[in-house]
Amino acid sequence: MGILLVLVILWRADFSEVFQSLKTFDFKLLLTVCLLQLLTILLINLQWHKIALHMGEKLALRDLFYMNMMGTFVESITPSAKTGGEAAKVYLLKARMGLSTGKAAALVGIQKVISLIAFLFLNVVAMTWFFTTVTWEGGQIPAVFISFLFLAGFVVLLMVLMAYPSKLNTLIKKLPLLKRESKDKIMKVMVDLQENVKEALQQKKPFLYQIVLAFTIWLLFAYKAYLIASGLQIQLPFMGIAVVTYLTYMIGMLPLLPGGVGTFEGSMVFFLLPMGIPSHEGVALALILRFVTFWLAFFISAGYLGYQQLTKEQNTIEMASRKPV
């Protein structure tokens, strides 16, 4: 019901007023927010690099950037709570950077758990603030509750799989459709995954640094939203904007539409309305924030991947032309 209300709110928005709100926005500020998004991308790649180093793998930032761009592209076109993007990262870590499947899965899983633990904590704070400060309407409760249960369940499941992957071997052995050879390969990966996770977790201090970095990355998302809100003359404190941002991203993680398109914009309006912000201003804020954090990242990833493919094809043609006839 909450998701349906979100879509109805988005449908009923007066887009002529949305356009007027967009016209009042200082687009010089857009450049600042876009630069902050590039900083966010850099910090995410740095996080991957540091976690890989802790696991004994010195991976080039260029390769990690390519991996994350591919992951972003896949996440943008699949309604899969980002699991499609993570699968692409495991594949590239193995195929492009030479990691074993178990180690690649361990690296992806550890990074995801660190990021989601920080995000889950911020959403607990956001939910507490929203329901104790704002005069909310009935629709917000099921939307937030379902989204939080999904996120918390996903984090717990991921942590269990990371801590005890070999426990799945009993289940894998009973799968009737898999051949024995395939089962043996999967079970070997599970054992490799568990060994890599256990080894990585022997030293806790580096992960405290990574959790701080994860909080910094997520706080940047709230700061970008606050700058955009200020540019639209939306009179809300940073805490209010941050709460709306995190709750909106939490609902956007539900695997409904590719990249959470539609649910993200509607959810932001959904949480801004009880704070006294008109729907057209909420939609304007959501559209600009969405452009910076989703479409900009999507176009950068698509452009970068396209450039890489063209370069690869050009090099292939040049090598073929140099071969003696």
Automatic annotation (TrEMBL):
Spans through the membrane: 25-46, 104-131, 143-164, 207-226, 283-307
Reaction catalyzed: L-lysyl-tRNA(Lys) + a 1,2-diacyl-sn-glycero-3-phospho-(1'-sn-glycerol) = a 1,2-diacyl-sn-glycero-3-phospho-1'-(3'-O-L-lysyl)-sn-glycerol + tRNA(Lys)
InterPro entries attached to this UniProt entry = L-PG_synthase/AglD (IPR022791)
Q: Name the EC number(s).
A: 2.3.2.3
Q: Name a GO CC annotation attached to this entry.
A: plasma membrane
Its predominant location is membrane
| Molecular function GO terms recorded | phosphatidylglycerol lysyltransferase activity
Localization per record: Cell membrane
Membrane topology designation: Multi-pass membrane protein
> Which UniProt keywords are listed?
Antibiotic resistance, Cell membrane, Lipid metabolism, Membrane, Transferase, Transmembrane, Transmembrane helix
Q: Which GO terms describe its biological process?
A: lipid metabolic process; response to antibiotic
Main enzyme class? transferase
> Which interval of the chain is the signal sequence?
none
Could you name the domain of life of the organism this protein comes from?
Bacteria
Which family, according to UniProt? Belongs to the LPG synthase family.
Q: What this chain does, per the record?
A: Catalyzes the transfer of a lysyl group from L-lysyl-tRNA(Lys) to membrane-bound phosphatidylglycerol (PG), which produces lysylphosphatidylglycerol (LPG), a major component of the bacterial membrane with a positive net charge. LPG synthesis contributes to bacterial virulence as it is involved in the resistance mechanism against cationic antimicrobial peptides (CAMP) produces by the host's immune system (defensins, cathelicidins) and by the competing microorganisms.
Task: Read off the PANTHER family from this record.
Answer: UPF0104 MEMBRANE PROTEIN MJ1595
Q: What is this protein called?
A: Phosphatidylglycerol lysyltransferase
Q: What is the lineage of its organism?
A: Bacteria, Bacillati, Bacillota, Clostridia, Peptostreptococcales
**Gene encoding this chain?**
mprF
